From TrEMBL:
Record's keyword terms, sorted: Cell outer membrane, Membrane, Receptor, Signal, TonB box, Transmembrane, Transmembrane beta strand, Transport
Biological process per Gene Ontology, one example term: siderophore transmembrane transport
GO CC annotations on file: cell outer membrane
UniProt protein name: TonB-dependent receptor
Lineage: Bacteria, Pseudomonadati, Pseudomonadota, Gammaproteobacteria, Cellvibrionales
Start and end residues of each TonB-dependent receptor-like beta-barrel domain: 220-657
Region ranges (Disordered): 203-231, 252-289
Subcellular location, principal: membrane
Domain named TonB-dependent receptor plug: residues: 37-141
Family stated for the protein in its record: Belongs to the TonB-dependent receptor family.
């Protein structure tokens, strides 16, 4: 996959350097605005140079090399994030604190509608974050922050532009950003244009094909993306109020085999290497030889209000409102629209930080959502459904000597109102957490977090193909080439969670180790029924208990001062296991991974190399194929001279140096769509 350096993060780093400020990240996703060391929540933050190196065209690929995080690609146009083995409906992607409101959770071939290339920072809460953001976050939260509603009034105009080209897919990428102020009004504009050709891969994309070439091409994997945002805010003595509007257009292809290759979903099922016979021929004719393409459009409006000391007893009050109009069409090879998905939603969030009550300090708030999802066309298997959600939350902390204690509660009410005769369902969910952080010394910190998280079933889990009594009328879900049957009797799923962390901070070194355990009751997933219709397997959503556990390690060491710069080494790794109550392995989990990064940098140069070794995934789940391990090498260099009062940055990167064949065990398309082969990225960025 292609990696692009975000100009937004470069602007933040440049401002901090110009003002000689330390870059200390304050968490936005946690409403109390703590630093990462001030909470027991397992949090990953990408900003500054680290975000520069990692940022890519998809959020999944951007986060893929972080401990506990992985990518579930569906060709280069789609990269869905995986947090501790959870993906889809269990991972909530936010944009500045409110949900992305797309259709990515519905199916593995739907792209997430946020642009990490435009981010100032990305914050990830690994593990259940239902307390802060509701039941959909039972696997974790990803918050992409891009300052589209300007939070400060800039003293002078700032901005930048970047061009980059990637040889692995002939990708051209242009990113621009401008921020300024007129009087008490702050302005923000950003734009992105990206197009790419079919991606080069090592050998034949189809696993096990004997007719392998030295160099292959992933057919129908090209695409084009355009994005633009305009935002403004009015600043006054006690805060600011602002509004932003953004437009995203994303058109990309689904690689061959995606809509004709069977994979199971969340838990287990029958795995058919090939579906032979008349049904396959009809399916091929239906979609055409050119394959399926996704044409995505989204218009989003965001409003924000920040007030300092608005009422007696309150330090800060923050309000967010977003309206999102999302639509994408699945276009068949003959140019006709097969299915059109829409998701129209309103979301509002209110946070109030109260002044300390003695040693107790905290935040309370309200979050509401109202939306309508629809899928219309020949592959529409989910009825038009209205969705209403409301949640109340409270988070408090208490300092006692070297200890910090946190306690939180949340109550959610979720309503699902489908058309076409399926029953309405209402759910009440309760989540709670308690944690402690012990600072034994300035160098050592220990954390313990316990939580109970509860999630209401998603629309597709309840209503896929429900109300259709004739099996011949059941609709095939093309992305998985299976018939999926919802279950409108599903109950909420509940997880009991434990996180243990140890952090060591030396003079200029650090090591972090986290151990986690998640015990799910009534985990929701697709199970094989043993039935087939025209040789297409039938699956039904059902509930079964499951357990997940793993370890995450991250470190950074200063090795030496060398030639006027610093030589640093970072070592990282993770491992996760997921087991069903009956003893079977949960499918599509990441393998055990170990990586290292060696870099040297001074005021002008940054030179680095990184290796990531992934083991075989030999616990793929029942009737799933194992995935071979791989070792990936990357290297890069950046030259940053000062030029005419601006920061000019020239950069280049060699990706997948050994042209390794990489197939992700998290991907539905691992047998037909490997990751990109060897490629060179090079570009120029001008920041002022």
């Amino acid at each position: 996959m292609k990696r692009l350096i975000p100009i937004a993060a470069a602007l933040v780093a440049a401002r901090a350097a110009a003002e000689q400020l330390p870059i200390e990240h304050v968490l936005v996703t946690v409403p109390l605005h703590k630093k990462t060391a001030e909470t027991a929540l397992p949090i990953t933050v990408l900003s500054g140079d680290e975000l520069h190196r990692a940022a890519s065209a998809t959020i999944g690929d951007t986060l893929a090399n972080q401990p506990g995080l992985a990518n579930a690609s569906f060709g280069p146009g789609v990269g869905q994030p995986v947090i501790r083995g959870q993906q889809g409906a269990r991972v909530t992607v936010l944009q500045n604190g409110t949900t992305a409101a797309d259709a990515s959770a519905l199916s593995a071939d739907h792209a997430v509608s946020v642009e990490p290339l435009l981010a100032d920072s990305i914050e990830v809460l690994r593990g259940p974050a239902t307390l802060l953001y509701g039941g959909g976050a039972i696997g974790g939260v990803i918050n992409v922050l891009d300052n589209r509603v300007p939070t400060t009034l800039p003293d002078a105009p700032s901005g930048g532009i970047e061009y980059r080209r990637d040889t692995a897919s002939d990708m051209d990428n242009v990113v621009g950003r401008l921020e300024a102020a007129t009087g008490d009004f702050a302005w923000h504009f950003d734009g992105l244009y990206r197009d790419w050709s079919e991606m080069d891969v090592p050998g034949n994309p189809v696993l096990g094909d004997d007719e392998r070439d030295e160099r292959g091409t992933l057919q129908n994997s090209d695409g084009q993306t355009r994005s633009a945002t305009l935002g403004s805010s009015y600043h006054f003595g006690s805060g600011f109020v602002g509004l932003a509007v953004s437009r995203l257009e994303n058109e990309y292809g689904i690689p061959p085999g995606a809509h004709g290759h069977h994979h199971d979903e969340e838990l287990e099922g029958e795995h058919d290497e090939e579906l032979e016979g008349d049904h396959d021929e009809e399916h091929e004719d239906e979609h055409g030889e050119e394959g399926i393409r996704i044409d995505l459009e989204q218009t989003r409006y965001d409003a924000a209000l920040h007030l300092h000391e608005p009422l007696p007893g309150l330090e800060v009050m923050r309000g967010f409102v977003s309206y999102t109009d999302y639509e994408h069409a699945e276009i068949e090879g003959n140019g006709e629209v097969g299915t059109r998905y829409t998701n129209e939603s309103w979301e509002a969030r209110l946070e109030a930080v109260h002044q300390p009550w003695g040693p107790v300090h905290g935040v309370f708030g309200l979050q509401v959502l109202d939306g309508r999802f629809s899928a219309i066309g020949e592959e529409a298997f989910i009825p038009v459904t209205d969705r209403r959600e409301a949640g109340l939350f409270l988070l408090e902390d208490y300092h006692l000597d070297d200890w910090l204690f946190e306690v939180g509660l949340r109550l959610d009410r979720d309503e699902r109102d489908p058309r076409g005769g399926a029953p309405d369902r209402d759910f009440t969910a309760f989540s709670a957490s308690g944690s402690a952080v012990w600072s034994l010394s300035p160098a050592w910190q220990f954390g313990l977090a316990l939580s109970r998280a509860e999630r209401a079933p998603a629309i597709e889990e309840l209503y896929s193909n429900t109300g259709i009594t004739d099996p011949e009328a059941w609709v095939v879900h093309a992305a998985t080439n299976a018939i999926e049957l919802g279950n409108d009797d599903l109950d909420t799923e509940v997880s009991a969670n434990l996180d243990l962390s140890v952090d060591w901070y030396g003079d200029d070194n650090s090591v972090s180790v986290t151990v986690f355990y998640n015990d799910f009751s009534d985990y929701i997933g697709l199970l094989a029924t043993g039935q087939e219709v025209d040789e297409v397997p039938v699956y039904g959503y059902a509930q079964e208990d499951a357990q997940f556990y793993g370890v995450e390690v991250e470190s950074d060491f200063r090795l030496a001062s060398l030639a006027g710069g610093e030589l640093r080494l970072g070592v990282f790794g993770d491992t996760i296991r997921g087991e069903l109550d009956g003893g079977a392995d949960v499918p599509r989990l990441p393998p055990m991974r170990v990586g290292a990064r060696l870099g040297w940098s001074d005021a002008t140069w940054d030179v680095w190399t990184q290796v990531l070794d992934a083991a075989d995934q030999d616990r793929p789940g029942e009737n799933e194929e194992e995935t071979a391990g791989y070792t990936r090498w990357d290297a890069g260099v950046q030259f940053s001279p000062t030029w005419g009062g601006t920061d000019l940055q020239l950069f280049a990167r060699l990706n997948n140096i050994t042209d390794e064949e990489i197939r992700l065990s998290t991907s539905f398309l691992r047998e037909v769509a490997p990751e990109a082969g060897r490629g060179v990225e090079a570009g120029v960025r001008l920041v002022f």
